[in-house]
Specification:
By secondary structure, this protein is an alpha/beta fold. 35% of the residues lie in helices and 19% in strands. It has 11 helices and 14 strands. The protein has a 7-stranded parallel β-sheet, covered by helices on one side.
């Protein structure tokens, strides 16, 4: 698929006080994109569309260039100590995505230009925790790779973390536009993870993302560039023929990575889950979705913040976990499975 190009760009005046803000305005002007001014990246008005359905789709191709004012990093991810806030929002249309509800009425894409301030805050967190290693997740609220060919914010972050003693960077992507990241001075301190799934899930629930083969092409490139590599299988979904579908996934993965050094390969396994608010939003935005969200077929699980979600019943979840662990053990015996959730 072609790299993301926004149809409409908003820029905060304050963003132009930063070099990256000026560079992006010039870049988008040279590209002939429509540029509008906004007082705040949190208050975008005037996204075109005759109804909410059209406005949602247009918002997904709208980019807002702003300043990240809240520099306190989120700490709610299982895979890292902190989320580093480089961008918010995603150009993909994955039906199951938790951003459907966490971004609510603001599904447009935001990129933040005050990188030095963000890096200063990250350095404070590292200094507070040293000599412990501090891991930063760069894809909690966006698919940063899908945007970075325009901004290079991720590349700057990779090189910032690469020169630290106690920092590590992680992110996950469904996009293969990685060429500009291959020469980044990462020093082995950034783990590049790709989201993968069965054919059924990618075909039915992941429109607007790179194909499975394109993601594998990207994985080969970043592994060859010396990045530690990982894969997230999410959401693990019990569709008809799921055992065969996931077996084929790992078989294709293994074939595609032949000849690539895979020491320190990791997998993260996340079963499909949804909340009641998410179900309402998903059914509204993707009314023809095949995504199964029947509360009667699920187990209710309380979250850390008192917000419950529907997951597979215990026996089904155990079956999913055991099956995928078996496949990974067969095709990638040296790999580490970091968690199943």
């Amino acid at each position: 698929m072609e790299p993301f190009i926004p149809q409409l760009v908003f820029i905060e005046p304050q963003a132009l006080e930063y070099q990256l803000g000026q560079e992006l305005k010039q870049k988008f002007t040279d590209m002939g994109l429509e540029i509008r001014e906004t007082t705040s990246h949190n208050q975008i008005r005037g996204i075109p569309g005759d109804n909410e359905f059209q406005q949602y789709r247009n918002a997904k191709s709208t980019l807002v260039v702003g300043v990240r004012r809240t520099l306190k990093f989120d700490t709610s991810k299982p895979s890292a100590e902190y989320a580093i806030p480089l961008a918010t929002g995603c150009m993909g249309h994955c039906h199951y995505c938790y951003l459907q509800t966490t971004l609510g009425s603001k599904p447009y894409i935001r990129t933040y230009v005050n990188l030095d301030e963000i890096f200063d805050q990250a350095q404070k967190y590292m200094d507070e925790r040293k000599p412990e290693i501090t891991r930063f997740e760069a894809a909690c609220t966006s698919d940063i790779v899908g945007l970075d060919h325009l901004t290079h914010s991720l590349k700057k972050t990779i090189e910032f973390i690469g020169q630290t003693e106690h920092g590590r960077l992680r992110f996950v992507t469904k996009y293969h536009h990685v060429d500009h990241l291959l020469d980044a001075k990462h020093n082995g301190k950034t783990r590049f993870r790709f989201s993968v799934n069965s054919r059924y899930v990618i075909k039915n629930f992941e429109p607007g993302t790179s194909s499975f083969d394109e993601r594998l092409e990207g994985a080969r490139k970043v592994a060859a560039a010396g990045y530690p590599l990982g894969f997230i299988v999410a959401p693990i979904y019990m569709h008809e023929g799921w055992q065969e579908g996931y077996h084929e996934l790992f078989e294709r993965l293994s074939n595609a990575l032949q000849g690539i050094p895979l020491n320190n390969l990791t997998f993260e396994l996340i079963q499909h889950r949804f909340t009641k608010p998410a179900k309402r939003v998903i059914e509204k935005r993707y009314p023809k979705t095949k995504l199964e969200m029947d509360e009667e077929k699920r187990k209710y699980k309380w979250g850390r913040y008192g917000i419950g979600k529907y997951v597979y019943p215990t026996e089904e979840a155990q079956n999913l976990e055991q099956t995928l662990r078996q496949y990974i053990g067969s095709f990638f015996p040296e790999a580490e499975i970091e968690y199943f959730t």
